[in-house]
């Protein structure tokens, strides 16, 4: 995703603030959407998740911190830049601990906000890339047969071919055959590479009684 493709969502109950933020964000080359409340953002029909959320801290109804919590509860990881018209150190600490990119007090410097958005967009790009890589890795693992998955679990646990053969009651030749298929299907360049992939997938060695 190019930076110019990023979608910046603005949630602020002040219409003048929303308009000013949209003008600033568009001037930097990003797309933007604006919402008058946290609930309006939650009800948005669009399927595209924003790359960054510029979020007012204090609003009627759900506050900015409430929205941050709601997003975390549904597993929507959106980098957030908080804005507030009141210096609120406890709230800023809570926001940053919960993963906010920045916490700015109004009136803020335009370049300071744009830099925070750039950081948020970069963080979102990295997150999306990791998600895509994990999806590809899971698909490769799912393409293995049940027997190949069993062999892979044994291989990444550090067992020798003869030990795997004994555990699974197959020949060493069959183990070698499966290992070759596994390495090709998983696109692994080495055993260390395969072990890293298994760790990313959360695979732990499982004993097997399959014959």
Describe the structure using short key phrases.
five-stranded parallel sheet, disordered C terminus, 9 helices, alpha/beta, 11% strand, 211 residues
Describe the structure.
The chain is of the alpha/beta class and 211 residues long. It contains nine helices and five strands, in the order βαβαβαβαβααααα. It has helices spanning 15-27, 38-42, 64-73, 89-97, 110-142, 146-156, 161-168, 172-185, 191-201; strands at 7-11, 31-35, 52-56, 80-84, 102-105. The chain has a five-stranded parallel beta sheet with strand order 2-1-3-4-5, with helices on both faces. The longest helix is centred in the middle third of the chain and has 33 residues, at 110-142. The radius of gyration is 24 Å and the shape is elongated.
């Amino acid at each position: 995703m190019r930076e110019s493709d990023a979608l910046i969502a603005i949630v602020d109950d002040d219409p003048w603030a929303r308009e000013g933020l949209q003008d600033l964000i568009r001037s930097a080359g990003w797309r933007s959407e604006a919402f008058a409340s946290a609930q309006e953002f939650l009800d948005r029909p669009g399927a595209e998740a924003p790359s960054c959320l510029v979020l007012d801290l204090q609003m009627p109804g759900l506050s900015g911190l409430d929205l941050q919590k709601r997003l975390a509860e549904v597993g929507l990881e959106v980098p957030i830049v908080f804005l507030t018209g009141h210096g609120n150190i406890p709230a800023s600490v809570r926001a940053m601990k919960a993963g906010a990119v920045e916490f700015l007090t109004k009136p803020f410097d335009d370049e300071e906000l744009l830099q925070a958005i750039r950081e948020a967009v970069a963080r979102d790009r990295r997150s999306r890339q990791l998600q895509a890589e994990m999806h590809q890795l899971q698909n490769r693992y799912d393409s293995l047969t049940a027997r190949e998955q069993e062999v892979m679990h044994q291989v990444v646990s550090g067992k020798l071919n003869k030990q795997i053969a004994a555990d699974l009651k197959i020949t060493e030749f069959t183990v070698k055959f499966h290992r070759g298929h596994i390495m090709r299907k998983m696109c692994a360049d080495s055993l260390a590479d395969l072990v890293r992939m298994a760790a990313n997938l959360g695979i732990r060695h499982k004993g097997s009684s399959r014959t």
